Amino acid sequence: MTLIDVLSPDERAESTSPWWVGAVAYQVYLRSFRDGDGDGIGDLKGLLRGLEDIAALGCDAIWLNPCYPSPQRDHGYDIADYFDVDPDYGTLADFDAVVREAHRLGIRVLMDMVANHCSIEHEWFRAAVRAAPGSPERARFHFADGRGAEGELPPNNWQSVFGGPAWTRVTDAAGRPGQWYLHSFDSGQPDFNWESADVSLHFRRVLEFWFDRGVDGFRIDVGHGHVKAPGLPDWPGAETGTGGHNHAMWDQPGVHDIYRTWRSLGDSYPEKKYFIGEIWVPSIERLAAYLRPDEMHQAFSFDLLVQPWDASRLRTAIDAGLAAAGSAPAWTLSNHDVHRTVTRYGQEQILEPTDPTDMIAAARRIGRADLDKGTRRAAAAAALLLALPGTVYLYQGEELGLPEVFDLPREARQDPIWIRSEGAELGRDGCRVPIPWAATEKNFGFGESDSSWLPQPEWFGRYARDRAAAQPNSMLRIYEQLISLRRRFFAGDAPIVWLDTERPDVLAFQRAGATCVVNTGAQPFAVLAHWQTGAPVIATAATEAETVIPRDSAAWFAPRGG
Ligand code: NOJ
């Protein structure tokens, strides 16, 4: 990084917009963030210690992946009790301490709302398995008789996102095979039946419970999933093997009523609680439907995440995000479900169109990566995102430039995707390895135990936070500076004005007078004189002439004295 002009981080413009416009939210995958009690698993005490670092990075909020009691079949996305904290992570008192400290540091706290499914260990599901077919207990889930002479075939042909049929058969009280239950994900995650009044009332109580503890909002897990097509009809795509989007399973019109109810509850708090959806749908129009004024505030613009490093594809995805969300989309390069950015951008880039709902094809590819190239591009992509209007979500470890860990021992892998695909797919463990804090400490400063729940590779020390903090050109320093400069030049929701770059591999736009230029190509790009960009304020790669943007890098410019 060449930092041409360093500005004070405290120059945040006064604004009347809601807090999330222009904000940066840090995604905490708690299990891998920091271990405060020495059991090899990240926890709330560890997070408490790390909050200052998140604040120092300049983040405005944290999004916590699920920390409720869970048998951890899908690491917290299988919840056994929505009103408590998993003992692996601490206690409700630890949770309250995190909220208090985060608020003291000016950081908002977002939790994860997993309402499509729970865990097979949830008391409702246990009761449903014990109860008879047709009982009120079973009506809270999707239980159905099987097909075939003996009911030995699943009730329909739906496939689980994690591979294999979306149905599992239970055994009745007499030990005979009984009905089947629906699970869009792992068999440990039974889907709720949102037609049931018990279910909607339960989730209202869950929201109130956490809002009343000071939580500022929720990220909504599989927000396009909660309601299924009436009658659970077969999906024609399954037979033809076309993959893609099963409309009977996803994005049913009834989901929108749920968010209207939640939004009106959130709005009844004086500080107005916030919702952001994880919504995988095939079109801008479908995404926009979730963002109507009485539904969610934001939904992730995954379209940008799944694009290759290609200027025109990136621009199209940005335009799509803006078209769906208006002035303040939620952007992200990475999360706990996809391969690390540095690795993705260092791999061969696949330019054929991808199905936007197919994460695996686009963001979980296996293949050799040129990490130098990937790192350059990831830094440039960070500069691109942090210049955009809206909110940027930053997955823990991205600020360290961590690559995907492909070399995890087979026996260490835990992701249900790995297990259900019998190793055909690596799954998501490689982006969830506990993050390195200190290059020369045990477990690279993650915690005091002899090992961590996923083993860290030896090479992780190179990426440790303490090392990165001491290096002027590290990814961490680039992120710190970008976030601080964003507050000054790119906060707010001023619209994008695209500039004609005369080069298909270069992207450039202005917002509120400041300019962002991203060169995705292999040749340097000289900023065009007639753009009148003012002075350079940051560049992600060293450059001799301040107005020349080297290959795979980005720079920001701002009016002089601005
Ligand atoms: C999306 C979450 O991000 C992912 O980690 C989880 O496995 C599924 N939803 C199921 O809850």
Question: Overview of this structure, please?
Answer:
The protein has 562 residues and is α/β, with parallel strands linked by helices. It has helices at residues 44-57, 92-104, 123-130, 197-212, 236-240, 255-267, 284-288, 302-305, 311-325, 341-346, 359-363, 371-386, 416-420, 465-470, 475-490, and strands spanning 24-28, 61-64, 108-113, 143-144, 167-171, 177-182, 217-220, 274-277, 298-299, 330-332, 391-395, 497-498, 506-511, 514-519, 525-526, 535-539, 548-549, 553-558. An 8-stranded parallel sheet has the order 9-8-7-3-2-1-11-10. A 5-stranded antiparallel sheet has the order 12-13-14-18-16, covered by helices on one side. The chain is globular. Bound molecules: 1-deoxynojirimycin. 1-deoxynojirimycin is lined by residues 74, 77, 114, 185, 221-222, 278, 336-337.
Present the secondary structure layout.
Blueprint lengths: L23 E5 L15 H14 L3 E4 L27 H13 L3 E6 L9 H8 L12 E2 L22 E5 L5 E6 L14 H16 L4 E4 L15 H5 L14 H13 L6 E4 L6 H5 L9 E2 L2 H4 L5 H15 L4 E3 L8 H6 L12 H5 L7 H16 L4 E5 L20 H5 L44 H6 L4 H16 L6 E2 L7 E6 L2 E6 L5 E2 L8 E5 L8 E2 L3 E6 L4
Parallel strand pairs: 1-2, 1-11, 2-3, 3-7, 7-8, 8-9, 10-11
Antiparallel strand pairs: 4-6, 5-6, 12-13, 13-14, 14-18, 15-17, 16-18
Helix pairs in contact: 1-2, 4-6, 12-15
Bound molecules: 1-deoxynojirimycin.
1-deoxynojirimycin (NOJ) binds next to loops.
